[in-house]
Structures are given as structure tokens and as C-alpha cells.
Write a structure and sequence with these properties.
Layout: E1 4-11, H1 16-21, H2 28-52, E2 57-60, H3 62-67, H4 69-77, E3 81-84, H5 98-116, E4 122-123, H6 134-140, E5 145-146, E6 157-161, E7 175-181, H7 190-194, H8 205-222, E8 226-232, H9 234-237, H10 240-254, E9 259-261, H11 264-269
Parallel strand pairs: 1-2, 1-8, 1-9, 2-3, 4-5, 5-7
Antiparallel strand pairs: 6-7
Domain NodB homology: 16-271
GO molecular function, one term: hydrolase activity, acting on carbon-nitrogen (but not peptide) bonds
GO biological process, one term: carbohydrate metabolic process
């Protein structure tokens, strides 16, 4: 068994996040940011992962599969895992009813099956959001794991169902489900760090990569069999200078003894 596990994950949203989450279907400039991820960012990341011989996990909306089939097929043929990220990039909490969310999940499954020939085993919700129906729908569609929540930092754990959070009474955890959570963190996601915002300006990008390295190093020193999940988006991470910084981060992490780079699916199987 490895001392530490690293899961490099890619949310291949294409233009779907701009259309379905941000409501900017009429913004050619923002849509072009998604197209950069499809045409330039994703190939650069695939080349980098190939250089390091790393298998990664790509969470792909069905909208991306149907809009850019050749780009997504290149991910699959390069040997990377493709898992569920909705059909549309719609935050689950914004669906008007259970039937709408169910239909979107079903359509996303069908899109992945049409590309890969197999059903996805894992799910990552758009914007890491759940509705009151999401967990029961994941169970109904026989998903085995999720990677959207943040109940621990470096250890998988079972998602809980039947929890209660009344404003005038104590919180109740509920009971463990069969769905394994492989936790994420906003602190290890490139979008909030690097996505340009006129109000915020630019981040100190090398400092963010230093933070990601220090988080791995803390886990390596202090957590037995820890799982480190890094979340990236081709339209964000695929810029030339960030690919170089990511290359350096991967090289640094790989120098540590007994570190394994693997897929989220492989992690869930070991829980």
C-alpha cells in the first residue's frame, strides 16, 4: 500500500458552466474561455499527464461530450477515466423538482455510455452542490462514489442520508449510506484561485502552487494513507505558465517515496 495517494482530477466543463451555471450563453467572450479549454487547455494537460505517465479522472458534463465529441474521446483514448458531472452544468440545488434533476443525471449517464461503452461509477456535482434529492438519486442510479463534499480533508468517508438541520434544534448526522465520498477542497481548486474577476484582479499564482505543495507535504507527514485531490479545469489550468507550474508540482510530489498517482475510482474501490 502506498503511503500517500494523489488524485489529479479535471472538470472538463467546456462551455457548459457559462451556459448552465453562470447564465452567460449570450457572452461570446466568456464562451471563448470555455473553447480555449476544449481546443488548447485539454490537449496541453493530456500531453503533461502523458509525460508523467499519470492516469487522471475527468468529470465531464454530457453537454461537453455531445458538443465536443472528438475532444472528449481524446481523453478516453489516452487512458484517463471519465466520470459523471451532470449532463448540463446545473447546480443541483437550483432544479425546480426531483424529476428535472433525475432527467439530467440520466442524460449524463447516457452520454458517457455512448462514448465509453460503460456506465460511470462516480459523480461530481456541478459547483459541488447537492439538492435534497441528489444522494437518493445517486443511490437509485447505482453510483458507488461521489467527489463533491468536504467532510474530511484527506480521507474518504461514507456520505450520510436522513440528516436533519433544523434551525431551532440540534443537528442530526443521519446514517451512513453506501456512497463513498472522496473529499474535495476549495483550497485545492484552480477555478476560485485563478479565474479572472475584474473585482478581484490577479492571484499570486506561484504562491497558490506553493500552497498546494505545502498541503500535500503536511498530509504526507501527518496522515496515514492520505488521499490528496486536486481539482483543475482546462480553461483555467491549461494556460502555458500554469502548465509549467503544474509540471513542477507533479515532479516535486513524485519525488516522495511511496506516493501513487491514481484515479478517484481506484481510491473508492480500496475503501
Amino acid at each position: 500500500m502506498s503511503r500517500a495517494t494523489v488524485c489529479l482530477t479535471v472538470d472538463f466543463d467546456g462551455v457548459s458552466s457559462w451556459i448552465h451555471s453562470f447564465g452567460e450563453a449570450d457572452s461570446p467572450t466568456n464562451l471563448s474561455r470555455g473553447l480555449f479549454g476544449v481546443d488548447t487547455g485539454a490537449p496541453r494537460l493530456l500531453d503533461l499527464f502523458d509525460e508523467h505517465d499519470i492516469e487522471t479522472t475527468w468529470f465531464v458534463p454530457g453537454h461537453t461530450i455531445e458538443s465536443f465529441p472528438d475532444a472528449v474521446e481524446s481523453v478516453w483514448t489516452a487512458g484517463h477515466d471519465i466520470q459523471h458531472h451532470g449532463w448540463s452544468h446545473t447546480r443541483p440545488g437550483t432544479y425546480p423538482d426531483e424529476a428535472s434533476e433525475r432527467a439530467d443525471i440520466k442524460r449524463g449517464i447516457e452520454a458517457i455510455e455512448s462514448l465509453t461503452g460503460r456506465r460511470p461509477t462516480g459523480y461530481r456535482s456541478p459547483s459541488w452542490d447537492f439538492s435534497e434529492n441528489t444522494l437518493s438519486l445517486l443511490e437509485a442510479f447505482d453510483f458507488e462514489w461521489d467527489s463533491s463534499q468536504m467532510g474530511t480533508e484527506f480521507h474518504p468517508y461514507p456520505l450520510r442520508k436522513g440528516w436533519q438541520a433544523p434551525p431551532d434544534a440540534p443537528f442530526e448526522r443521519g446514517e451512513a449510506s453506501a456512497i463513498v465520498e472522496v473529499p474535495v477542497s476549495w483550497q485545492r481548486d484552480d477555478f476560485p484561485a485563478f479565474a479572472f474577476n475584474r473585482q478581484r484582479g490577479f492571484a499570486d499564482e506561484p504562491a497558490v502552487f506553493d500552497m498546494w505543495q505545502s498541503q500535500f507535504e503536511w498530509m504526507y507527514r501527518n496522515v496515514d494513507n492520505g488521499v490528496y485531490v486536486l481539482t483543475m479545469h482546462p480553461q483555467i489550468m491549461g494556460y502555458s505558465h500554469r502548465v509549467e507550474l503544474l509540471d513542477s508540482l507533479i515532479e516535486t510530489i513524485a519525488e516522495y517515496p511511496e506516493v501513487e498517482f491514481t484515479t478517484v475510482d481506484a481510491v473508492s474501490e480500496g475503501v
